[in-house]
Amino acid sequence: MKAVIVEIKGSNAAVLSEDGRISQVKNRNYKIGQEISMSNNSYAKWALTAAAAMLLFVTPAWAYMTPYSYVSLDVNPSFEFSINRFDRVLEVKAVNGDAEEMVKEMNIAGLKNKEIKDAVRNVLTELKNQGYITEGEDGGVVVAASSKSEEKTNNLAAALKTAVNEEVGKYKEKDSIEVSKDTMEVLETENKDSEEIEKSDDSKKPEDKSSVALDNAQDKNKDKSENKDNVKVEKNASDKNKNKDEDDETGVEVEVVKVSQQKVDEAKEKGVTPGKMNIVDKLAEASGNPEDFDKEEWLDKPVKEIMEATKNYEKEAKNKDKDTEKSVEVETESKVNNNQGNGNSNNGNSGGKKN
């Protein structure tokens, strides 16, 4: 009979067997979460000490069997993991139809009691084996983490980020962990301090600033039209190469997000994962019209498709901004030229009157 080590105290260890019983065994350098096999004779022998084991290990055993954290994994097959405070998997569920079909070809029961990072690696390996993740092709993986404490959530997200990148990051190392509001405030404070230091340095030598400005003005007036054309050519070439690199880049995009228990509950009500909800929310914002965006339509789509649609919306918005900026520049240049023309005309008229 299989059993898992749930607690260790000195020379004794508590094991949780497949039938739900807690027993005491000798500690043979076991580790918490380790699976062991117990013969019927040894099980019967040690089962007699179950009462003593409960007295010795009741609190740790309860902690081992109690869900403490939540993790979801989405490609399009979507899975969710219930985890204890030792980061050991208590239960794995297929969230959608694709996942239900996938588990028919894998030993999902074998993920129980594994460390979550190892369980996630195993699922990603199976996703590759079944063709959901293909080397050299675009793809997407979204992992969401939630726990009863903020510190645990942060540590869990960081560990999962490393695990996922080790498994699929060799295809495309582009990942992100959404940071909390507190972290953003720290970053903003640091940026503000940096700007103040730069301003302080600039104010030390005003004569240098004037000299630089004069040199810049002289250089700008020299061969103005020629330099302007060169800048345009270089900029266009740079933009073209940048867009080419972006278009040619392929691989698996990884996103790891930290979510609240409220988000987990909301996702469960909809029959999806919080990770999938998160990227669909981003897609709605990128569309430019989130109020009228049909999120339900996208919740069943693959992560790859959602991420691609989000990029397209962002690219369209960026192009619109460029067109607007270019239009403003043309309009401004036209006004400047008109003003200069009017000024030259007035000077000519003034000269005629004087003669």
Automatic annotation (TrEMBL):
Residues 182-194, 200-210, 217-245, 310-334 have a biased composition (Basic and acidic residues). Residues 335-348 have a biased composition (Low complexity). It holds the Pfam family RsgI_N. It comes from the Bacteria. The keyword Cell membrane applies. PROSITE patterns: RSGI_N (PS51849). Its main location: membrane. Keywords: Cell membrane, Membrane, Transmembrane, Transmembrane helix. Residues 1-47 form the RsgI N-terminal anti-sigma domain. One of its GO terms (cellular component) is plasma membrane. The keyword Protein biosynthesis does not apply. The chain crosses the membrane at residues 46-65. Residues 182-253, 310-355 are annotated as: Disordered. It is found in: Cell membrane. It is a single-pass membrane protein. This is RsgI N-terminal anti-sigma domain-containing protein. It comes from Sedimentibacter saalensis.
